[in-house]
Write a structure and sequence with these properties.
With about 220 residues, the chain is of the alpha/beta class. It has a single domain, classed as Rossmann fold (3-Layer(aba) Sandwich), CATH 3.40.50. The strands form three sheets. It has a six-stranded mixed beta sheet. Strand 9, helix 5 and strand 10 form a beta-alpha-beta unit. Helix 1 packs across helix 2. It is globular, with a radius of gyration of 17 Å.
Length: about 220
């Protein structure tokens, strides 16, 4: 492949360490290992969601407010916080890759099952879209309706999601370089694995990249692995 991974490009975080080697949970972390090689070429999270169940990181706290805070949280403030996350994601993309030659030309986000004041993944995709990257809205669907992932026990999620998603786009929207999947929080990874498989089933020669605002799991590894 023509693109270079972040580690190959010698990208450094704010702690001046190579991408993916920093132990600071507020720095970007890789969402890639031998298992995920079957699903995506490279994956990154902007930050960990929380250090402990009761102690969220700055990014994790903002995401939690955007998704769940309904009282004493104005819509202008929610939008301002969403803009902050979006801009940090854009900064991370520029940090990880050559912005003049990105390895992807389209981005997608998971389908939403519940009405939300702001769908953060969709909001980020909309903000990224333009120039060399197009947001393919509403291209992910389900064969069988699953509802919210929160309603499915974690051990059962992958068996229900992988193979259940469908990726559909117009011929003129066909990805030519690669597909970027954007999500707000990476937990078990089952949703993104399912979407990745759906894209690969349709375009097996197109590399897939993953970026999320935060991840849940142990440091330096994916929670489901």
């Amino acid at each position: 492949m023509a693109y270079k991974f972040a580690a190959e490009r010698k990208s450094r975080c704010k702690c001046d360490l190579f991408a993916g080697t920093c132990a600071d949970i507020n720095c970007p972390q890789r969402l890639s290992n031998r298992e995920t090689e079957n699903y995506w070429a490279e994956g990154w999270a902007l930050s960990k969601y929380s250090a402990l169940s009761y102690e969220r990181t700055k990014i994790g706290s903002i995401i939690h407010n955007i998704k769940y805070q309904l009282n004493n949280y104005s819509e202008p403030q929610r939008k301002s916080d969403a803009d902050y996350i979006k801009n940090e994601i854009i900064r991370m993309i520029k940090w990880l890759y050559n912005e003049k030659d990105l390895p992807f030309d389209v981005c997608v986000s998971p389908m939403s099952h519940n009405a939300k004041p702001i769908d953060l993944a969709e909001y980020i995709c909309t903000g990224i879209s333009g120039g060399s990257v197009r947001y393919l809205r509403n291209t992910i669907s389900e064969k069988l309706p699953l509802g919210s992932m929160k309603n499915i026990p974690k051990p059962d999620r992958c068996s229900k999601t992988i193979g259940n998603y469908i990726f559909s786009c117009r011929e003129e929207d066909r990805p030519k370089k690669g597909v970027l999947i954007i999500d707000d929080v990476f937990d078990t990874g089952c949703t993104i694995k399912g979407i990745s498989k759906a894209i690969s089933d349709k375009f097996s020669d197109v590399p897939i990249f993953v970026i999320t605002a935060a991840y849940i799991g142990q440091m330096g590894r994916i929670s489901a692995v």
